[in-house]
Amino acid sequence: MSPGSGGLDESEGRDLPANADDRPSSGTPRRVAAVEFESSWAGPLPPPEALAQFEAIAPGLAMKLVDMAVAQQAHDNEMERSVLRWEGIRSLGGLLSGSLVAVLMILTSGFVIYHGHDVAGAAIAGATLVGLVAVFLQRDRAGGPPSDAPP
Asked: Is residue 33 a contact partner of residue 7, using CB atoms and an 8 Å limit?
């Protein structure tokens, strides 16, 4: 309801006077209704209508908002690239470390067997093999590399 247009009094269903001078002098209290309008948007930029209103309030403000959104998007893209780069390095590091440990354990097993300790060498080789199989089964079950979160 716009000011000065009159309207219905919700309690009595009659027209309210347009201004205070038209109010009855009998001391009847006047009811005033307030209407609040709220607008929001999702994403870095407001809708074009809001940008036009911002531009009308302060010339150049709409362009500043667009520039800020572009800069924020560029920053977000760079951060995502950085995270992906480090995830790849971390994954490769884990793969190389695991491979090195497996090769060292197999060489240790061969060394122990060569020096006459067949049971101990077989146990080391078997434990290494079981560990490798467990890692690959866990990876396949989870749909990717094992997470850092505790089970």
From this structure: yes
